Amino acid sequence: MLDTQSLYKILFSHMGSQHWWPAESKIEVILGAILVQNTNWRNAAYALEQLKVKTEFDPEQILNLDWESLQTIIKSSGFYKNKARTILNLLAWLECFDFDYHAVKLYYQHQLRNALLEVKGIGSETADVLLVYIFEEVAFIPDSYTRRIYKKLGYANTESYEKLKQHIQLPETFTNADANEFHALLDNFGKNYFNGKNEKKYTFLDTYFEE
């Protein structure tokens, strides 16, 4: 069975750096991480663009929007009522630290993931994405594509996010950059392999797949 370190090396050798997350600021990453929940990136990106037009991604401007107005702006992302509430909740939480991400990290230290999960609307996957892409931590993000890849590699406990996360440990040598790249590689491989896009270019794991 292919271990995580070997999987990372093979993906990187075939696909190279993915330059993910596509954003000009951490606020844009935060908004994208919420808007992409339960939808595809195209829908999330359109909602992001509308939000940029209306607020220039200024968190104070976003917080000054009422809930209904924010819903209208991000409607293309789906589940817009819940997402609007989550955006406002998370930005209000970050505002307590003047949007100083380093200060947040220092304050919560090893309890940061738990603190993120206490923000209403933030689930496990979004919390881990924020840990990696905002707070520069090392975390495994077993999203749907990652679970499908690990299942085909013969791993058990792939039926849920929490189960696979409990059973997979990233290598001790992994840096934040590695965690970032690994997540991006898995997602982009999954999008191409499982959705039939350029599938012939992504057969290099077939020899390791068990089903």
Topology:
Layout: H1 4-15, H2 26-35, H3 41-55, H4 59-64, H5 67-73, H6 80-95, H7 101-108, H8 112-117, H9 124-133, H10 144-152, H11 161-167, H12 176-194
Helix pairs in contact: 1-12, 2-3, 2-6, 2-9, 5-6, 10-12
Strand elements, count:
0
The CATH architecture of the largest domain would be: Orthogonal Bundle
Broad shape: globular
Parts with pLDDT < 50 across at least 5 consecutive residues: none
Q: Count every helix, treating DSSP H or I runs of 4 or more residues as helices.
A: 12
Question: How would you characterize the largest beta sheet?
Answer: none
Give the integer mean of the pLDDT values.
Answer: 96
Count of domains:
2
**Radius of gyration computed on alpha carbons:** 18 Å
SSE pattern, N- to C-terminal: HHHHHHHHHHHH
- What is the CATH domain class of the largest domain? Mainly Alpha
The CATH superfamily of the largest domain is known as Hypothetical protein, domain 2
State the distance separating the first and last CA atoms. 13 Å
Structural class: mainly alpha
As a percent range, the share of strand residues is under 5%
Structure description:
This is Endonuclease III. GO terms for molecular function: 4 iron, 4 sulfur cluster binding; endonuclease activity; metal ion binding. The protein is mainly alpha-helical. It folds into two domains: 2-17 and 138-206; 24-133, Hypothetical protein, domain 2 (Endonuclease III, domain 1, Orthogonal Bundle), CATH 1.10.340.30. The chain contains twelve helices and no strands. The protein has helices spanning 4-15, 26-35, 41-55, 59-64, 67-73, 80-95, 101-108, 112-117, 124-133, 144-152, 161-167, 176-194. Helix 10 crosses helix 12. The mean pLDDT is 96.
